[in-house]
Amino acid sequence: MTDDAALRALFATRKGGVLATLKRDGRPQLSNVNYAYDEA
After folding, report:
1. Do 19 and 31 meet the contact criterion of CB atoms below 8 Å apart?
2. pLDDT tens digits, residue range 11-28?
3. What is the pTM of this model?
4. Would the CA dihedral through 10, 7, 36, 17 be positive or negative?
5. Contact 9, 1 (CB under 8 A)
C-alpha cells in the first residue's frame, strides 16, 4: 500500500480529528473537528 493509499484509507474510515494551534501567549489550543471525506 502506498503512502497516498494509506492516507485515503485512513481518511475514509475516520470521521474526526484534532486541530492544534497556538494561542498568542504560546499555550496550545486543541479543538475537536469532524469532517467528511469525498474520494471524488
Report:
1. yes
2. 889 899 999 999 999 999
3. 0.59
4. positive
5. yes
